[in-house]
Amino acid sequence: MPTPILLLSSSGKDSLASLARLQADPEWEVVGLVTSFNGEVGRVAMHGTRRELVREQAEVLGLPLTEVDLPENCPNDEYENRMAAALKPHRENGVLHVACGDLFLADIRQYREKQFKALDFRPIFPIWKFDTAELATYLIEHDWKLILTCVDTDQLDASFLGRDFDAAFLADLPEGVDPCGENGEFHTFVHACPLFSRPIPVTRGRTVTSHGGRFQYLDLVPEKSQRD
Predict the structure, then answer these.
(1) For residue 140, which of 12, 71, 134, 221 sits 20 to 30 Å off, Cα-Cα?
(2) E strand segments, 45-87
(3) Tell me: the pLDDT tens digits for 191-221?
(4) Against a cut of 0.70, is the pTM above it?
(5) How far is it, in rounded angstroms, from Cα 36 to Cα 126?
(6) Rounded Cα distance, 204 and 206, in Å
(7) Smallest Cα–Cα separation from 13: which of 97, 101, 100?
């Protein structure tokens, strides 16, 4: 029997690439998604994605979603306490593994290993050490549709915000910027891919800045919200 596993998901490409990897491996059965939100605004931290869109993504993936609300500027100990409370019911149901979409940042991996060990979970890294240029090209060639929802303007020009993650985007990336944004240069939202039962229609909304203008966010608006 396959081993049940949860996916720590930000709604972006690395999380869902990890999901694709797990679903192709008969060793694993993904039984749910876990997403943390800035509870004050109802958005994924750093990605800026609305809660409504994350819920819709879980729906088209056919997976239950566990939501973890965090305070603004959440300290690590509070994050860990809230994550522990959210994961406790899963562990009581026999789920002992959680997948993370990290690619190559060793310090982040070490933090997650320490964090989840304390919660009696074993972290799995399905796309660890994947070549990021090859991964980016694979997603584009296999009809994954992504939009850049956040740009760190200390690392990438603000004009990239809101762009489609496509061949033209990769060609325009400056030298030194990781093709998957693994150093925090940018973050994405997946609105269509082969894993979905249907695409998620979205409209590009307003731009929001934070940290003195360093981070710029695109508000992706679900089309059904506009109809409502």
Answers:
(1) 221
(2) 65-70
(3) 999 999 999 999 999 999 987 889 999 999 9
(4) yes
(5) 20
(6) 7
(7) 101
Which amino acid is it at 30? V
Which helix (DSSP H) or strand (DSSP E) does residue 133 occupy? helix 132-141
Tokens linked to 184: 């925090």
Ordered by where they begin, the domains of the chain are 3-124 (3.40.50.620), 139-227 (3.90.1490.10)
How long is the chain?
A: 228
> Hunting for tokens 């869109």 — which residue is that?
53
51 residue type, one letter:
R
Taking alpha carbons only, the member of 190, 191, 199, 187 closest to residue 161 is: 187
The H-or-E segment that residue 209 falls in is strand 202-210
Answer yes or no: are the C-beta atoms of 103 and 128 closer than 8 Å.
yes
pLDDT (tens digit per residue) in 17-30: 999 999 999 999 99
Task: Single out the residue of 7, 59, 62 nearest to residue 30, CA to CA.
Answer: 7
